[in-house]
């Protein structure tokens, strides 16, 4: 009996589904950057900062959220728990020090030092993100799309989840939110960090996996719907503290429910590791060549094989290539041909970052992401001004809505791109192109400013933007391998701040100020009286404010055009990688 119990516990703690569920919980801590808007007012008032100084702290936060080179490198050379611990320490030190300064427990520091603290604290979440994704794609090599989509989705919902937990504290001291941001994620990471690890997921493939993913998707949809309902209720109705506690308790229950999967699997199913190992070795598209070091790959095979062999059914293709390798090996032994080692990996094998940077496919992926996600982030960054320019005062409603659509886009992007890959052996970026066309329509609605345009625009742009972050990491792991996935992923994430800097910081803001200045001049000429002259003389004019659809008309049309260009780049990548995906996933169709 005791032996049986120990076996069950061993199955449970080594289950890839337990690792996945723990990664989902960790990803809720990877959304601390979304809470900057909630803590910036208390920082501003406590330290007597102006808006420009707060904006600089915001830039430091964005950089910390995006610069993950160190996280990617450490995830390659250290155990994942050690990388998570580094991230937890950074998060605790960075935001903990900010809390000490804001509450007057230590002396204030110069602005540049505060920027460093915000950068260090927010940069901790890149370790959470990278470790969760690396463990996910390694443990689920045959289900990368759903895994990445779900994990990135939970990162997007992290801000809403932490905000709801903070509502329970109900503290009049708003600085306590900073304390929670410093301490809460660190406690969660330390509790779960030893669970996050590769556990030989390719040996745990079971027929029930599809049902398990369906259950997780159901929980995700229920969680998104619940959070949206709670946010709307708390915004429009003055609910009591006891009701908020009940709301938060239900939220915790929804977050805990997925652990039912590893528990039920450990109780009901016997492992079939040895049988599944050989099968997964045949099917696993992401396995490293280092795992099969004895296998000799001749560059001549690529040169000698017939053109149509890659499109044959998997079993026939394997036979043809094996037969050709035998012939070449015999010829080499007899001295008839000279065998030369292939230089560098092929797509679908393990690339280092340096090797990937010289590949056209990698840069097609990067610039497609830059144009698509950069245009989406421009909307997210300017959503308040966009809604105000169209006459809406409930900006927080649209912020909440686009967060939910972003989450559903990540979930849906992973799900539908997996169907394209799994059922059709077709490149995953076909789904990316569709998402970018959807975003182009969303930007067009913003440009027109029609009634309801804000609702439709946030829906389409939110879904499309979220889909990028489910599709790109999965595609990168398929085309450039799993071994250096952390470094590859964190380089690709640089497309986000780069796109935001150019599209939001330069294009959108410049056009908005230009239109606002035109309207200010028209108002000035329309009412040239003593009061306006006097206020202008004293430089007492209010900040420039633009009203009407014209404010973001040109910006939105430019963003729409950029999304179309991004879709074209995605389709070029689809054309270039069709054979690669036929090789990787053609087996599932036979």
Textual characterization of the structure:
There is one protein chain. By secondary structure, the protein is mainly alpha-helical. Helix 8 packs antiparallel against helix 11 and helix 17 runs parallel beside helix 23. The two termini are 43 Å apart.
Keywords:
590 residues; single chain
- How many angstroms does the end-to-end distance come to? 43 Å
User: Which of globular, elongated, flat, extended, rod-shaped describes the shape?
Assistant: globular
What can be said about the biggest beta sheet?
A: none
Computed over alpha carbons, the radius of gyration is 26 Å
Determine the structural class based on helices, strands and strand pairing: mainly alpha
Give the percentage of residues in beta strands.
Answer: under 5%
Are there runs of 5+ residues with pLDDT below 50, and where? 271-303, 532-541
Total of helices: 25
Element-by-element helix/strand order: HHHHHHHHHHHHHHHHHHHHHHHHH
Mean pLDDT: 80
Oligomeric composition of the shown chains: single chain
Share of residues in helices: over 70%
Number of strands: 0
């Amino acid at each position: 009996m005791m032996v049986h119990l120990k076996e069950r516990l061993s199955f449970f703690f080594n289950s890839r589904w337990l690792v996945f569920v723990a990664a989902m919980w960790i990803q809720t801590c990877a959304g601390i950057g979304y809470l900057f808007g909630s803590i910036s007012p208390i920082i501003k008032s406590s330290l007597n900062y102006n808006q420009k100084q707060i904006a600089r702290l915001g830039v430091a936060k964005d950089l910390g959220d995006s610069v993950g080179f160190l996280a990617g490198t450490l995830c390659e050379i250290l155990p994942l728990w050690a990388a998570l611990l580094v991230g937890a320490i950074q998060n605790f030190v960075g935001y903990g020090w900010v809390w000490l300064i804001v509450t007057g427990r230590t002396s204030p520091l110069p602005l540049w030092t505060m920027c460093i603290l915000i950068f260090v604290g927010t940069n901790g979440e890149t370790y959470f993100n990278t470790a969760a994704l690396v463990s996910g794609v390694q443990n689920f090599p045959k289900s990368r799309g759903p895994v990445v989509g779900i994990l990135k989705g939970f990162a997007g919902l992290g801000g809403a989840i932490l905000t709801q937990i903070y509502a329970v504290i109900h503290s009049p001291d708003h600085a306590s939110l900073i304390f929670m941001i410093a301490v809460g994620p660190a406690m969660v990471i330390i509790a779960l960090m030893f669970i996050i690890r590769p556990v030989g997921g390719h040996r745990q493939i079971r027929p029930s996996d599809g049902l398990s993913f369906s259950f997780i998707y159901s929980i995700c949809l229920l969680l998104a719907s619940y959070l949206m309902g709670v946010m709307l209720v708390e915004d429009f109705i003055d609910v009591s503290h006891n009701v908020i506690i009940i709301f938060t308790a239900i939220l915790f229950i929804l977050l805990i429910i997925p652990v039912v999967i590893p528990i039920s699997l450990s109780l009901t199913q016997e492992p079939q590791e040895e049988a599944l190992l050989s099968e997964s070795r045949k099917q696993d598209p992401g396995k490293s060549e280092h795992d099969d070091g004895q296998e000799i790959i001749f560059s001549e095979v690529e040169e000698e094989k017939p053109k149509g062999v890659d499109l044959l059914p998997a079993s026939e293709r394997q036979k043809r290539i094996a037969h050709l390798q035998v012939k070449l090996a015999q010829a080499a032994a007899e001295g008839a041909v000279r065998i030369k080692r292939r230089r560098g990996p092929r797509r679908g094998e393990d690339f280092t970052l340096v090797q990937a940077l010289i590949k056209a496919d990698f840069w097609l992926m990067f610039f497609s992401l830059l144009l698509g996600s950069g245009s989406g982030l421009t909307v997210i960054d300017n959503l308040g001004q966009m809604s105000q320019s169209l006459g809406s005062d409930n900006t927080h409603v649209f912020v909440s809505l686009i967060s939910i659509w972003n989450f559903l886009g990540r979930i849906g992007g992973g799900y539908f791109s997996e169907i394209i890959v799994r059922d059709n052996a077709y490149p995953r970026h076909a789904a990316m192109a569709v998402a970018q066309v959807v975003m182009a329509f969303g930007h067009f609605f913003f440009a027109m400013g029609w009634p309801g345009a804000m609702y439709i625009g946030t829906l389409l742009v939110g879904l499309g933007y979220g889909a990028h972050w489910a599709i790109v990491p999965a595609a990168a792991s398929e085309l450039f391998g799993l071994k250096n996935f952390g470094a590859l992923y964190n380089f690709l994430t640089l497309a986000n701040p780069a796109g935001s800097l150019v599209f939001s910081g330069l294009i959108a803001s410049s056009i908005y100020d230009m239109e606002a200045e035109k309207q200010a001049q028209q108002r000035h000429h329309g009412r040239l009286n003593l009061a306006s002259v006097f206020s202008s003389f004293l430089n007492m004019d209010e900040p420039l404010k633009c009203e009407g659809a014209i404010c973001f008309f040109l910006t939105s049309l430019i963003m729409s055009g950029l999304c179309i260009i991004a879709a074209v780049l995605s389709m070029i990548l689809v054309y270039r990688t069709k054979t690669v995906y036929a090789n990787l996933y053609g087996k599932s169709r036979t």
